[in-house]
Protein: Hydrogenase
Amino acid sequence: MASLEILLILVVSMILYIFLPPLLDGIERKIKAKIQTRYGPPTIFQTWYDILKLSSKELKIPPTFQFSVFLLVLAFSISIVTIYLLSYIIISLDIYSIALIIVLILSIHSLIAFISTLSSNPFSIIGIFRGLTIDIINEMGFIASIPLYYLSIKTLNLSIKSLLLLILSTIFVFIVSYVASKRLPYDLHEAEPELASGSIIEFSGPILALYLYIHLIDRYTITVLPVAIGLSSIGLSTPLYITMILVHIIAIGIYLLFGVIAPLLGRSRIDIAVKTLMFIYPIIITVWLVVKVL
Structure:
């Protein structure tokens, strides 16, 4: 019975990971339109419609993208493995699973970046190098933030020092998650008004659909990861399926909060964006280490 329950939890959780990202993007688009006093998409399922419509188009591969389909399928396969592990750590959390999830997420980012570099279009090249500049800095923050966050939760007690460590690491991990989602002001890889969609300018049809779907899954998994680690580390006395539901409810709330924040911000200049992250991340890490040592 226990094995059947675990299997059902894994299956339901993976279905949610597969179905929710485009749906949440549709909700976010409606929220963004409301904030900007626009009509927006007609339904919250619009992103799903867009992906399905693009998937039904004829597959046309530019000469420079001969291997892009294989690489995108590989990135999608890694995404599926990632969401399986994210579902599994709710049941059994260990540092090795967390490390593997981090590696898989970074692998997806690397594959997508590599695919974009195959284009000879100057706008795509500018877009991808803007994106890479931010990604390199933010992924170093990502690699640092998750262990600090995990350690803060595992050593949590009622002392002021412990609570301060948790607050610092939580702020750190959610800043990293927001930047990794490539929302404003950090969507520098596309920058539609000036780069005409930048790094994805030559994507179309099923290739564009798969790219968008991978990006949305990645955006949601990065939001879920700290939530899953947090609830699993606390060791709630609730049944596993309740924990799984709580993980997704909290992650959805954070995801939509990010969606509210994004339209309130303007796009950053690449130099300011880089300087901001290089200023904030070392300060948070240094303060965390100082508090830990004291």
Remarks:
- The mean pLDDT is 86.
- Residues 2-35 form the longest helix (34 residues).
